[in-house]
Specification:
Helix 5 crosses helix 7 (160-173), helix 9 crosses helix 12 (258-283) and helix 11 runs antiparallel to helix 12. The protein has 306 residues and is an alpha/beta fold. Strands 3-2-4-1-5-6 form a 6-stranded parallel beta sheet, with helices on both faces. It is built from 13 helices and 6 strands. The protein starts with 6 loop residues before the first strand and ends in a 5-residue tail after the last helix. The chain folds into 2 domains: 3-114 and 184-301, P-loop containing nucleotide triphosphate hydrolases (Rossmann fold), CATH 3.40.50.300; 122-182, Orthogonal Bundle (Histone, subunit A).
């Protein structure tokens, strides 16, 4: 296959230096960067989502960053549609698309295709969420296995998000989530992709997260959160999940001090990084692992025509 037809995917835990790596690679191979992070789409949340900015954006063309309002719904399906358009446009310019981000579901949708599950009414979704909240994850998981035995080997008993999703799909469609998956296909072949994962030791990553948290707070994260809360965003929208928002709210309402705020944001970011690493172990086993301290040498060896 002609190297020019390749699509490069870059993933890794939060704070692992994915964006910097993508920019350096794009410079070498005449690439353009497409966002694959579900939180970096929001235009009002630049600092808290660690969106690339400044010279990075001037030197290399970036797509799908900061283009949606925090008041908008934006699904994996929406992203896939937008990303495919961007990939095709970049290829038309004889450049190489480089998709970078930490949202595993986005990459899964691109590589494997997206499941065509009918929209599940909000009333049913809310009822199932309330049920899970009322009886707790362990009992809820037991109920899910009875309802849909296919989930037993495929969903971790502690994964509440996927458990709820599988439960609501089976309830509404009377068909297992995994039967829906088996009928899914991608617009691309596996051969289209070069899949790279930045491997970062946990201790080093914790240090980086602490530094980045301090930088965010220094650079205006509190002001950004204040602006967000002034917009009165609906509670069910995904922008509320941006790490730091609820912690800053506690700080502004004087429930915690600045040191506790830093610690809470750092802890939540570390937990998120751990979930990303767990996802990668299960879903990205065929991705090429690049050690955090060898990204420069990797780029040096990377063929210019790739």
């Amino acid at each position: 296959m002609d190297q020019k037809s390749k699509i490069i995917l870059i993933s890794g835990p939060t704070a692992s230096g994915k964006s910097r790596f993508a920019i350096q690679l794009a410079k070498k191979i005449n690439g353009e960067v497409i966002n694959a992070d579900s939180m970096q789409i929001f235009k009002e949340l630049k600092i808290l989502t660690a969106r690339p900015q400044g010279n990075d954006l001037k030197n290399i063309k970036h797509h799908l960053y900061g283009f949606k309002s925090v008041k908008d719904n934006y699904s994996t399906g929406n992203w896939l549609k937008d990303a495919k358009k961007k990939i095709n446009n970049i290829k038309k310019k004889k450049k190489i698309p480089i998709l970078v981000g930490g949202t595993g579901l986005y990459f899964k949708a691109l590589v494997d295709g997206i499941v065509k599950i009918p929209n599940i009414p909000l009333t049913i979704r809310n009822r199932i969420r309330k049920r899970q909240s009322k009886i707790g994850q362990i009992k809820f998981y037991s109920e899910l296995i009875k309802l849909d035995p296919l989930c037993k080997k495929k969903i971790n008993k502690n994964d509440s998000q996927r458990s709820i999703r599988a439960y609501e799909v089976k309830k509404f469609t009377n068909k297992s989530l995994f039967d829906w998956y088996s009928e899914t296909y991608s617009d691309f072949t596996q051969d289209n992709f070069i899949k790279l994962y930045i491997d970062y030791p946990r201790e080093k990553l914790i240090e980086r997260i602490t530094i980045r948290t301090n930088e965010m707070l220094r650079d205006g994260a509190i002001k950004e959160a204040k602006m967000f809360y002034k917009l009165r965003v609906r509670k069910d929208l995904s922008s509320n999940k941006v790490i730091g928002l609820s912690e800053i709210k506690d700080y502004l309402e004087k429930r915690i001090n600045l040191n506790v705020l830093k610690e809470k944001i750092s802890i939540k970011t570390r937990q998120y990084a751990k979930r990303q690493s767990t996802w990668a172990r299960g879903q990205m086993s065929d991705w090429q692992k690049i050690k955090f301290d060898s990204t420069k040498s990797f780029i040096k060896k990377f063929p210019k025509s790739a």
